[in-house]
Structures are given as C-alpha cells and as structure tokens.
Amino acid sequence: MHSVDGACVTKANIEACNGVIHVINKVLLPPSKTIYELINSDSRFVTLAEAINTTALAPVLQNPAASLTLFAPTDWAFAKLELKSPGSMETLLAFPEELTEVLKHHVVNGTLYTCGIHCKFSYWSFFSNQFSVFSMARGVLRIRYAWNGRVYVNSMRIIDLDLPATNGVVHVIDDVLELYPHEFRKWKRGVHSHRASRGKKHRHH
Predict the structure, then answer these.
(1) How far apart are CA 143 and CA 130, in angstroms?
(2) Over pLDDT 70: what percentage of the chain?
(3) What is the C-alpha separation between 170 and 72, in angstroms, rounded?
(4) Residue of 55, 47, 50, 35 lying closest to 76 (CA atoms)
C-alpha cells in the first residue's frame, strides 16, 4: 500500500499489539460532494458544468457507487479551445454525441490520486517516465510525474491536484484533452450528416 485517499504512506506496517499502523503525510477529511456536485459548485467550471448537463454523463458523475477520476477543464481551457478552433464549443453543444465522447475522454474508471501516480512513476521510472490509462472514451491518457513534483496528462499540466469527491477525485487542467483532431471531428460530422440525409431520402421513396 503506497497511498490512501490521496495521502502518501510514509511509513507502513508498524505492528501494534491490537493491529497495525501506517503513517501518512496529511489528515484525511471525508469528502461531502460527488464529482458532479463538486463541478457544479465551483465557479471555474461553468462551461464544463453546462457541457456535462447537455450530455448523458451527468448520471455517471452523480453515481455515489462509482469510483472515477475526472480531469476537469476550466472555463479558460474551453476559451483556449475556442481561440484555437473558432466555433468549436457551439458545434460540440449542437452535437451531444460528439460532446459526450470528448467529455468521456476526461474520465477514467478508478480513483487516481497523484500520490498513487507518484508511486507508479517511481516503480516504472527505470523503464519509462510515464504510464498510460484508458479514458472512458477508450482514448489513451499518458500521465507523467515530473522531477519537480508537477503532474501532466497528455503533456497538459494539472494545475490543481486531488480534489476529493465521494465517488472519486478531480484534477483541474487548463486545457481540453482532445480525443480526435479538429479536422477529423469535422469529417466525422460530415459522414454522420450524409448518412442521416440518405436515410431520410430512402424513407421518402
């Protein structure tokens, strides 16, 4: 055991006559909000909250029995996406299925606190400086723990770490993790629109 609820175990397996003691580096406080409630109560996530409520992801993040990790883009992250690709947010909100895939790429099954990430990094550092997990959209998220203590996901720095929730943990990022390049998403929308129009034509005949 290397960590518990985000606290690093600094000394483990101290035997006592009535059990065992593990020394940790911080006081454990029970979280009171689900990931969904945490996002909707934080002013940094107005756009993210709107996006989540537009999709079917809200019940997933509300589920009290879940164990999830959310890499949560701030409003500034979505603003940067809009600057990079004007009209992106309007388009995503108009295509809930595509928006759902983008949001699911920010969610991982299982609770990943940075202390646990550090332990994984330390274990694998002989072989690599990062390890990978699959997002709920089946995209790859490469998580790296830098020598200076900073943590990155797909080269994007996590700016606020380990926000605990009753059903997982939230890490704050100032970038949107894109599952597909913008041009591929435009092509994909075109294919879906073409198929839909063909289906309408067939129904009219």
Answers:
(1) 6
(2) 80
(3) 7
(4) 47
